[in-house]
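Ligand: iron/sulfur cluster. Inputs:
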Amino acid sequence: MLITITLSCILGKEHKLKLELSQIIPQIHANLHNSWQKDLREVITEPEKLLLMLNIEPKDYLQHFKARQLFPVRVPLPFIKRMIKGDINDPLLKQVMPLNQEFIISEGFSHDPLQEHNSKVEGLLHKYKNRALMIVKPGCAINCRYCFRRHFPYQENSPNKTQWQHALAYIADHKEISEVIFSGGDPLMASDEHLTWLIAQIEKISHVNRLRIHTRMPVVIPNRITPALVELLTTTSLKATIVLHINHGNEIDSDFINALEPLRVARIPLFNQSVLLKHINDNAETLITLSEKMYDIGIIPYYLHLFDTVQGAAHFNIDEKRAVNIAKEMMASLPGFLMPKLVREIAGKANKTPINLA
Ligand code: SF4
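Predicted complex:
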């Protein structure tokens, strides 16, 4: 079937374009197939299914599956695609695989290691003097088992537009706030329309001039970097920066690299923060490879976090002395600009605490 499309060019002339409908339909289908919302709908929530996809026999690991009651399993397909088939110790699988160690109550660990659960204004955390953190969207595309917010009461902190007004009014009233950080959950779980509205409100607050987006979405669902999002971040009057979250070099594949390209071209600053995780990235070689791979695609290593002591995830923790040794080994092999700062977040402190490597 032949259809005719009339286009008006800038000189006002009309051009008729004849296209076969059969040419258009596959393109529409391709776009729908590539949508990030589809990737979100397809996240794997059953550990059995996850292991089967990786050619690993689930019945050998049944005792671990009940840990999903403590924190649901969520793993997007693009992330699974990067895991090594047949390897239960794959460093990406280990980040999302529920384990029965999560039931162990560990001394010194808590449900709220950074004391964030009692925010005065719904959806807003004002932890640092000139920066305010907005919980734009509760929940994430992926559930990382080590997450320090795994017990965060997102239901009580998922504001709607009316409640946003309180958070925005708070920011407007606090002239010391010059930077707003979009966090979550993952802020890029919000639609481009939602983000457009929110950014427009923040632009009206004259003392805010920077916007930082902390997100793991582009890593686990590369389709989330939509043209509309890139346009929004390049046209806002705020200086926009993205801080990604990548822990291992295997998380970087060609889909992610290609998706990132428009952000690089648009010169949106891209940083990364990693968490030091036992048996995942707790050696200098892995972290050096990660820094180098990131630099090749325009991401600057920013922070290497010591593990936040969240209850249910103590098996990811390594002690500070070992972390310092790893960081020293990295320093010996990396130029300074590829060396992430080793830091610990301490509840109530006005900034992250750098770890002394001397
Ligand atoms: S993406 Fe970040 S906030 Fe979400 S579960 Fe993982 S670590 Fe936590």
